[in-house]
Amino acid sequence: MRPFFAALSLLSCVPLGGFQPTEQDMRRSIHFFPLVGIVFGALFFGLAKLFSLYLPLSASAMLLTLLPEFLTKGFHLDGLADTADGFMSSRPRERKLEIMRDSRIGTMGVFAIFALLGMKFALFQSMETMLVPAAALMMLNGRCSMVLYIGMSSYARKEGLGAIFFHSKPWFGMLSAYLAMLVCGWFLAGVKGILCGAMVAVFAWVWSCVTFRVIGGATGDTIGANEELSELLTLFFLLK
Q1: Is the CB of residue 50 less than 8 Å from the CB of residue 68?
Q2: Residues 112/77, Cβ–Cβ less than 8 Å
Q3: H/E element, 99
Q4: Average pLDDT estimate for 193-206
Q5: Which element (helix H / strand E) includes 83?
Q6: Of 152, 172, 193, which is closest to residue 29 (Cα–Cα)?
Q7: 3-class SS at 218?
Q8: Which residues, 6+ apart, have CB-to-CB distance to 76 below 8 Å?
Q9: How many other C-beta atoms lie within 10 A of the C-beta of residue 146?
C-alpha cells in the first residue's frame, strides 16, 4: 500500500499522518495514479450528485471547477501556468526551461489559469444530465492521462523532481490507466465515455510530441499541464 499512499500524497493534499514515502515508493507510485483517479472520481461523483440536488447549476459549476484545485493545492494548475510562460516566451529551449523553473508566474501563466478555469466553469454550466458523470470522469481521466504522457515521453532536464518517473516505462500503469478510462467511461457515460477515454489517450500522445518538439521532452510542469488539459478535454467531449 505504500506506493498507493505515495501516489495519494503526490496528487493531493490529503493528510496521511506521518507517512514519508521513500524514493522507491515514489518511483512505483505512478502505477497507482489510475487507482487514485478512481478514488477521486468516486468522490466527485458523490459531490456532483449532491450539488445537483441542492444547488443551482451555476453554483454547482463553480464548485466543481474550484474544488479540484483545492484538492491538489493548485499543484497541476501551477504546472500549466509555468508551461504557458515557457512555451509562449519565443525563447530558445534552454531559456524556456529556465522560465518554467522560475516560481513566479508571468502574463501568459495568468492567462492560462484564467482561460482554463473559465472554460471549465462554462462547460459545467452548459451541462445538465451529464454533470455528474463528467465530474467523475474529469478527475479519473486527468490522473490516467498523466501516466500515459509520462510513458510516452522522455525527461527534458538532466535532473529534477519529475526525473524519478522516467527511469523505466510504466507499462503496468499505462495499461491500467487506459483500461480504467475505457471501463469507467462505459459505466458512467456509455459509448461517449469510451470515446472520451480514447481521445484523452490520443491527446496524451499529441502532448508528448508537442513537448518533445518545444523543450525536448517532459518536465514536472508539462505533466501538470497535461493533467489540467486532459480534464478540460474530458468536459468538452462529454458536453453533448
Answers
A1: no
A2: no
A3: helix 93-101
A4: 97
A5: helix 75-87
A6: 172
A7: strand
A8: 142, 224, 225, 227, 228
A9: 26
